[in-house]
Design brief:
With 133 residues, the protein is an alpha+beta fold. It has helices spanning 19-29, 55-68, 83-92, and strands at residues 2-8, 14-17, 33-39, 45-51, 95-101, 104-105, 111-117, 123-132.
Length: 133
């Protein structure tokens, strides 16, 4: 089963917890054992898994990315002016695979699934596919 989740971001760098939406897709699929693929088809957005209990973790990730890959660098060659967004997305990646066990995402206690948009605000798509018996 495949579903598309639409996420509206609110600023240039937005990190949105999409765990509950992905859980709902898994539940609707009826999958008991298998895999859940979470993918975003955008070159300036990504999907990652990290701690979701403390919002400071995501703030720290955004802060560190800004230090490592600053938005404004006079040496960027891409003419659209969003090179940092492309680089951040390329480094983090646009998909994750999560096991499904007993009908539930097999995430760790503190883990959540996030969509990060580095070139917002926009509406982003996240494709969620469940695979298994």
């Amino acid at each position: 089963m495949t579903e598309v989740i639409r996420v509206r971001t609110t600023k240039r760098t937005s990190i949105v917890n999409i765990t509950q939406a992905v859980r709902e897709v898994v539940k609707r699929s009826g999958l008991k054992e298998g895999l859940c693929v979470v993918y975003t088809p955008h070159t300036t957005a990504c999907v990652f898994i990290n701690e979701g209990a403390d919002p400071a973790v995501v703030q720290d990730i955004a802060y560190a990315l800004e230090k490592l890959i600053p938005w404004n660098d006079p040496n960027y060659a891409h003419l659209e002016g969003n090179s940092a967004a492309h680089i951040r997305s390329a480094i983090i990646g646009n998909s994750r695979v999560v096991p499904v066990v007993n009908g539930e995402l097999a995430l760790g206690t503190w883990e959540s699934i996030f969509l990060a948009d580095f070139d917002g605000p926009r509406e982003r798509k996240v494709i969620v596919m469940t695979l298994g018996a």
